[in-house]
């Protein structure tokens, strides 16, 4: 039973809402529940796309639960990297809806998602340096891959908070919408993705993930292999037939 996460499902879309007031901080319990929830969603055939957001209008997630830091060396402490890696690599498209402060571990969590939508009042950053710490949930690795090393260093060295528009300009977020309109925008996008075949979307996600790690020729070889595998699926045949017959395809994700 989840205490700090609420999960709802509709039209192939699962919405995961972090409910840890007042600022939805990343506590050990939240990490545990994220692990459990995303394991369940990966195996849920009714879920094609996933939205991750925070409850209320103040914060997506305003960092880690600093009150737990003195107990960090406890053997019961849950490692965050395996959980965040699980979210990043889940073979389903994910959208982070940033509906307020998205700081520290909150931004690091958002960076594990495929797409980020920010409401215009969101404040985004990695302020760990102000505590004499460093981003320890993937920020030093994921942010440079997104904005380049120089800009990432500036953000992390200064602990500065970015506005939603500044984050959009840097490519940290994909879209900025008015306050209160984020959920509608996220659902619209998630439902659009859920209308397509998970067989194709999951392969696209996998290929993009390896694109920066492989030489071009090897990446193209992987793409060719995945295309050949995909072409044999029921959904690919349905898509082609629907195009020829001038009708909307009905994908079964098989």
Properties at a glance:
44% helix, 2-enoyl-CoA Hydratase, Chain A, domain 1, four-stranded mixed sheet, Lyase 2-enoyl-coa Hydratase, Chain  A, domain 2, 10 helices
Q: In DSSP terms, counting alpha (H) and pi (I) runs of 4 or more, how many helices?
A: 10
Largest sheet: 6 strands, mixed
Assembly type: single chain
Averaging pLDDT over every residue, what do you get? 95
Q: Write down the domain tally.
A: 2
Q: Which second-level CATH architecture of the largest domain applies?
A: Alpha-Beta Complex
Structural class: alpha/beta
Distance between the termini: 31 Å
CATH topology of the largest domain: 2-enoyl-CoA Hydratase, Chain A, domain 1
The rough form would be described as globular
**Unreliable runs:** none
CATH class of the largest domain: Alpha Beta
The residue fraction in helices comes out at 40-55%
H/E element string?
EEHEEHEEHEEHHEHEHHHH
The largest sheet has its strands arranged as 1-2-3-5-7-10
At a glance:
By secondary structure, this protein is of the alpha/beta class. It is about 45% helix and about 15% strand.
Description:
With 254 residues, this protein is α/β, with parallel strands linked by helices. The chain contains 10 helices and 10 strands. Helix 1 runs parallel beside helix 2 and helix 8 packs antiparallel against helix 9. The longest helix has 16 residues. The model has no long low-confidence stretch (mean pLDDT 95).
């Amino acid at each position: 039973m989840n205490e700090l996460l609420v999960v709802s499902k509709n039209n192939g879309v699962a919405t995961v809402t972090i409910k840890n007031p007042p600022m939805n901080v990343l506590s050990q319990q939240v990490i545990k529940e994220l692990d459990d929830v995303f394991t369940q969603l990966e195996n849920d055939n009714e879920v094609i796309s996933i939205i991750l957001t925070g409850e209320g209008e103040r914060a997506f997630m305003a960092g880690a639960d600093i009150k737990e830091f003195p107990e960090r060396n406890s053997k019961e402490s849950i490692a965050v990297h395996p959980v965040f890696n699980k979210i990043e690599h889940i073979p389903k498209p994910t959208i982070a809806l940033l509906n307020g402060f998205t700081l520290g571990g909150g931004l690091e969590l958002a960076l594990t998602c495929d797409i980020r939508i920010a409401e215009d009042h969101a404040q985004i950053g990695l302020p760990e340096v102000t505590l004499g710490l460093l981003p320890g949930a993937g920020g030093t690795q994921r942010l440079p891959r997104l904005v380049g090393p120089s800009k990432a260093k500036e953000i992390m060295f200064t602990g500065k908070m970015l506005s939603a528009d500044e984050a959009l300009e840097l490519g940290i977020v994909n879209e900025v919408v008015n306050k209160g309109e984020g959920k509608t925008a996220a659902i619209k996008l998630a439902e659009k993705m859920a209308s397509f075949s998970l067989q194709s979307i999951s392969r696209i996600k996998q290929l993009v993930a390896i694109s920066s790690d492989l030489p071009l020729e090897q990446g193209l070889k992987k793409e060719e292999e995945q295309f050949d595998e995909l072409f044999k699926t029921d959904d690919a045949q349905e898509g082609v037939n629907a195009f020829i017959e001038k009708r909307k395809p009905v994908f079964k994700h098989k």
